[in-house]
Write a structure and sequence with these properties.
Length: 368
């Protein structure tokens, strides 16, 4: 199996980091420091080496270091099997971020074919008990790791839906205004649903075939309002959009489609829905899915993704924490993990690199 990892990471004027550089060797990276030192900012910078707005999902202008506000830059040498790519992404003056690969302008889909990156954040600990939007994002991030083109088709769907919603809010009921938009939404929507279904199937298989200390989650794709069945094909979606116009006009928005989907999960061994599990069990289910995603990608493309695990030790007891480290090392993934103290990573021993982040006068300093 080949490796995917960062060999060199450089940050310039990114959040609290005026300048930082990490030389890496492919091992997992344990990052420790006090709260507010800038640990998570390093993970966010790495998340921008993949498609999208990064793990905090904010505008480019919000990532620049203050008070200078000069713009920011993240650069990395990404090793992918026997190939290496110089990846750069930056923003100036709050403009949309620019991407270059090996010195040439690149799209985010191209970026997604080089760096497959997944993350778990403390804010996601409530994923199973809050609204469906967060679970859709979680599912789409995993789906994107299998199919980088999922980002583009999602954008196509969302653009057409926004225009359809504008017509609905303006109470325009002439069908001629809707047909082209609904055709775009149906084509893109069917692809979105198929991509998600393939990702869920891959995750299920990866969980079933693994011996792990983490619980298996039985997953299901749910449709609008948690329904177990709904339109999936292009033809069925087109018919659903057409037939649903009267109800959509009353609501002023589109009530049917993959933007209303949800991810269902059950703790398989107990037969308990994830939303009804304990806090520790919910965290363990999330970790299980991230590890399954890594195993599935390793089987499909020959290399596991890069993992960003912010405050990963939270809600994991010492036994599960040690098991997580063992599974990360067995998988061969370069996982970047944060914690407040080095003692949280004792079980990793020499299997990981250590990085300390210090903060003084609003400036983060990185010590490897």
């Amino acid at each position: 199996m080949s490796r995917l990892f960062l060999r060199d990471l450089r940050l310039s004027h990114f959040r609290s980091h005026k300048g930082a550089r990490l030389s890496l060797d492919g091992r997992p990276v344990a990052i420790h420091g006090r709260n507010g030192a800038g640990k998570t900012n390093i993970l966010e910078a790495i998340s921008l080496l993949s498609p999208g707005r990064g793990m905090r999902r904010v505008a480019a202008a919000e990532m620049t270091r203050r008070p200078e506000a000069l713009g920011w830059k993240v650069a990395a040498l990404v090793e992918q099997g026997d190939r290496a790519h110089e990846v750069e992404t930056w923003s100036e003056g709050g403009a949309a971020r620019i991407v270059k690969v090996d010195g040439k302008a690149a799209t985010q889909v191209q970026l997604g074919r080089i760096a497959r990156v997944l993350w778990l954040l403390p804010s996601m600990d409530r994923l199973w008990i809050e609204g469906a939007e967060g679970r859709r994002r979680f599912l789409d991030r995993m789906t994107l790791s299998f199919e980088p083109g999922h980002a583009d088709v999602s954008i196509t769907y969302e653009k057409a839906m926004r225009e359809r919603n504008r017509l609905l809010k303006e109470q325009i009921d002439d069908p001629h205004w809707y047909r082209a938009l609904e055709a775009q939404m149906a084509a893109a929507g069917a692809e979105i649903i198929a991509n998600r279904a393939r990702a869920v199937a891959a995750l299920q298989a990866a969980q079933a075939d693994a011996e792990t200390s983490f619980p298996v989650a039985a997953l299901s794709l749910l449709f609008a309002d948690g329904a177990e069945r709904g339109p999936e094909s292009e033809e069925a979606l087109a018919a659903g959009f057409s037939e649903g116009r009267p109800a959509d006009l009353r609501a002023g928005r589109t009530l049917l489609g993959p933007h209303r989907a949800d991810l269902g999960a059950v703790y398989a061994a107990k037969g308990v829905a994830a939303k009804d599990c304990s806090t520790g069990e919910q965290k363990a289910l999330l970790v299980s899915l991230i590890l399954a995603n890594g195993r599935a990608l390793a089987a499909e493309i020959g290399a596991p993704p890069i993992l960003l695990l912010d405050e990963v030790a939270a809600h994991l007891d010492a036994e599960r924490r040690a098991a997580l480290y063992d599974e990360i090392c067995a998988l061969g993934t370069q996982a970047f993990m944060t914690g407040t103290g080095p003692e949280l990573f004792t079980d990793l021993g020499e299997r990981a690199q250590r990085v300390e982040v210090l903060e003084a006068n609003g400036v983060s300093e990185v010590r490897a």
